[in-house]
Amino acid sequence: MVEAKRRVPDAQAKLVFGGIVAYLSVLLLVPLAALVLAVVRHFGDVVEQLTSGEAFHAMGLTLVVAAICITLNGVFGIAGALVLVRQRFFGRRFLDALVDLPLALSPVMTGLAFLILFGRSGALRPVVDLLGFSVAFAWPGVLLATLFVTLPFTLREVALVLEEVGDHEEQAAATLGASAWQTFRRVTLPNIYSGLSIGTTLTLARALGEFGAVLVVGGGIANKTETATTFIHTAVEERQEPAAFGMALILAAAAIALLLFLQNRKAKV
Predict the structure, then answer these.
(1) Distance between CA atoms of 122 and 126, rounded to whole angstroms?
(2) How far apart are CA 140 and CA 225, in angstroms?
């Protein structure tokens, strides 16, 4: 009886484990395998269509926008995290909640909001016209939309690390006569490196995969505002499936590589 009772939890655990593996396989592994097989079957057409100027422009714009987002959100993320974690001021909770707004809003709503502001009859359209550039249906709109949806990631990861390490080392450095810049460069920055690298990875992954916001505000115009994700959308609509398969596999491979890097970084923290 004792042995039977001991085997029940093991059997239940195996059943649960099998169910989880089956569930994840159906949702994740099977679609990815289908995508790989589709690329293999149409490999010649995939290479031909992905070496076109339109495909190169779409991937190039995606990489440029992602690089700018990493840089700007990295600077803002560090500064914002230091303010939210190290400072106490009126409205801090509201500002803290506001940072998470991009996570709650639909990307399509975000793109529409920018379109309302910078579109043909937008409130800020006269301003950008005066400055001599366009936002709606132009690459600055794609950049703004991507910046919006990627804003919280670096800030939240850096803030989490700042809360964990505390400010004892920073106070000690200040006591020893270090300037604010010296304290930041020699104490704060090394301490937040892990959070910064994780936040940067998440920002890059989100920027590469953004679709809804950039489609609405940018329009997915070929060789102008078309990103890698909107390229896939256009290719599917125009019955150019091999191009869609190939670009989707590239983005999937990039996402998997970033995920592995992220897991490696978290294991070292």
Answers:
(1) 8
(2) 9
The pLDDT assigned to 145 comes to 95
- Kindly state the tokens that stand for 158: 């850096």
Buried b (16+ CB within 10 A) or exposed e, 163-187: eebebeebeebeeeebeeeebbeeb
Distance CA 249, CA 231 (A): 13
Residues of the chain with pLDDT under 50: 1-4, 8
The SS3 assignment for 133 reads coil
Quick one: tokens of 239?
Answer: 């019955």
Alpha carbon distance 118, 129 (integer Å) = 10
Phi-psi label, residue 223: left if phi above 0, alpha if psi -120 to 50, beta otherwise? left
Q: What is the model's pLDDT at position 2?
A: 47
Instruction: Check residue 265 and give its pLDDT.
Output: 73
Q: How far, in Å, CA of 182 to CA of 185, rounded?
A: 5
DSSP state of 125: H
The DSSP-derived string for 221-258 is: -TTTT--HHHHHHHHHHTT-HHHHHHHHHHHHHHHHHH
pLDDT of the residue at 129: 87
Type of residue numbered 147: L
Angle between helices 228-237 and 53-86 (to 10 degrees): 140
Cβ neighbours of 261 (radius 10 Å) = 15
Query: Could you report the per-residue pLDDT of 81-100, keeping only the tens digit for each?
Result: 999 998 888 988 999 999 99
Per-residue confidence (pLDDT) for residue 131, from 0 to 100? 87
Measured between alpha carbons, how far apart are the two ends of the chain, in Å? Answer: 45
